Amino acid sequence: MARSFDLDTPHGRIALRESGPDGGIPLLLLQRFRGTMDDWDPAFIETISAERRVIWFDSAGIGRSGGRVPDTVGGMAAIAGGVIDAAIGALGFAQADVLGWSLGGVVAQQLALDAPHLVRRLIVAGSSPGGITDGPQPHPRVPQVMTHAVNDAEDFLFLFYPESETAVAAGRASLARIAAQPDRGPRVTAEAFMAQVKAISSWQGVLHRAAELRLPILVANGAQDVMLPAYRSYVLSQQAPYAKLVLYPDAGHAFLFQEIEDFAAEIDRFLA
């Protein structure tokens, strides 16, 4: 069962949860654009925390946490680094393994460059190193749908899952699990939304520094991601010297909630 606690940091009070057994280097999760810690699929959390401690949190100004959302990716990475220093340091570890999904993957890459001493291994899921102008582009409907005042189930199915019967069924099941969680926290506010947009828009990317990412990296995505095309994951895997690429067919941006058992097994092998 997940355990909740708060952490006082220079960025404000940060709300965290943890699950899994004691011992071993913890895995820190970094959430997507407009996501809170209630937007992780509980089945995914349960599976990946079966044999390791997993920690996830609302960054400053998000969900249950205090403070304000930074308007730079570097600022977001600094908050994640502070969580590793404080929460994971209190467990007796100087480093964490980090899994970032979507915007969280962007923050995770920046964190690994800004504070390489804090990250042992890195998992970049459904994300991009930025600075890629060639290759497939996001679906033209993505900007409109992702900026709706409130995203409904149909929005998430479009953004996160292919249109096949199997993928849509998996998507509806995941969305139902997420929605069924009790005592969900506040949604991301309009102010936080705008700060995240500014951070993403101003980020220069890390592609020009990918060779500096000299740690083991697992890069994964759904082959039919309409938000951040899988080509961008491929480019990162080619530029980072110790990266492994995994792509899932008939899956999109939320492949990690669609192919839970398979991706959890990849995570286990990678972090072992």
List keywords for this structure.
single chain; 272 residues; alpha/beta; Rossmann fold; eight-stranded mixed beta sheet; 10 helices; 18% strand
Task: Summarize the SSE layout with pairings.
Layout: E1 3-9, E2 12-19, E3 27-30, H1 42-48, E4 54-57, H2 73-88, E5 96-101, H3 103-114, E6 119-125, H4 142-146, H5 153-160, H6 165-179, H7 190-202, E7 217-222, H8 230-239, E8 243-248, H9 255-258, H10 260-271
Parallel strand pairs: 3-4, 3-5, 5-6, 6-7, 7-8
Antiparallel strand pairs: 1-2, 2-4
Helix pairs in contact: 1-10, 2-3, 5-6
Task: Characterise the protein shown here.
This protein is α/β, with parallel strands linked by helices. The protein has a single domain, classed as 3-Layer(aba) Sandwich (Rossmann fold), CATH 3.40.50. It is built from ten helices and eight strands. Strands 1-2-4-3-5-6-7-8 form an eight-stranded mixed β-sheet, sandwiched between helices. Helix 1 packs parallel to helix 10. The longest helix is centred in the first third of the chain and has 16 residues. The two termini are about 25 Å apart.
Low-confidence stretches: none
Compute the gyration radius: what is it?
A: 17 Å
* Measured distance between first and last alpha carbons: 23 Å
The domain tally reads: 1
- Quick one: how many beta strands? 8
Structural class: alpha/beta
Largest sheet strand order: 1-2-4-3-5-6-7-8
Beta-strand residue fraction: 15-25%
Largest sheet, described in full?
8 strands, mixed
Overall shape: it is globular
